[in-house]
Write a structure and sequence with these properties.
By secondary structure, the chain is mostly helical. It has 9 helices and no strands.
Length: about 170
């Protein structure tokens, strides 16, 4: 119970900080300074370090497990809207991800997003696991390109590109 409270404190404090400051990289000492949590406490909670924290931040902000999308378009609208609404936060997360193993935590987050959505939609249940990874990577690359260009492209254009994934549905 205490662990969950501490993790929520760290994640919420980091979300607030990343939403109001520009950050190029994030180290454990930075997280300690921002949240007031000691380095040893941080590693007890996040044994994979900043990578795990960033993954948890992305998942808590998007709250994917609490979403129930009617279709792929609704899922894409939600994702694009959340990124646009939290522009600075996601740009910071993207910049941080460039420093961490080819943005592995973003890869995990998008795979989780795709698997969660596809497993709920009966139309997509026949999709093979390898194809889910393909969808997740394609989605991640589209969003990554958008972030790499500082979200300058209008969300409507990004949504239109993401809707093209609908052509890849199983027949």
């Amino acid at each position: 119970m205490q662990v969950n409270i501490m993790k929520r404190h760290i994640e919420n404090t980091l979300v607030q900080y990343l939403s109001t400051h520009t950050v190029e990289k994030l180290r454990v000492c930075d997280v300690s300074a921002i949240t007031g949590v000691t380095r040893s406490s941080f590693y007890r909670l996040y044994d994979m370090g900043v990578e795990e924290l960033c993954y948890d931040v992305v998942m808590s902000v998007l709250q994917l497990n609490n979403q129930d999308f009617k279709n792929w378009q609704a899922a894409m609208d939600f994702l694009v809207t959340q990124i646009e609404a939290r522009r600075r936060l996601f740009l910071n997360i993207y910049r941080i991800s460039l420093v961490i193993q080819d943005n592995i935590f973003l890869k995990r987050a998008f795979l989780n997003f795709v698997c969660t959505y596809f497993n709920r939609d009966s139309f997509f249940k026949p999709v093979q696991p390898a194809h889910l990874v393909f969808f997740a990577d394609a989605l991640r690359w589209q969003i990554r390109e958008w972030l790499a260009h500082d979200l300058r492209e209008p969300g409507a254009k990004v949504r239109a590109r993401l809707e093209a994934f609908m052509l890849l549905q199983p027949s």
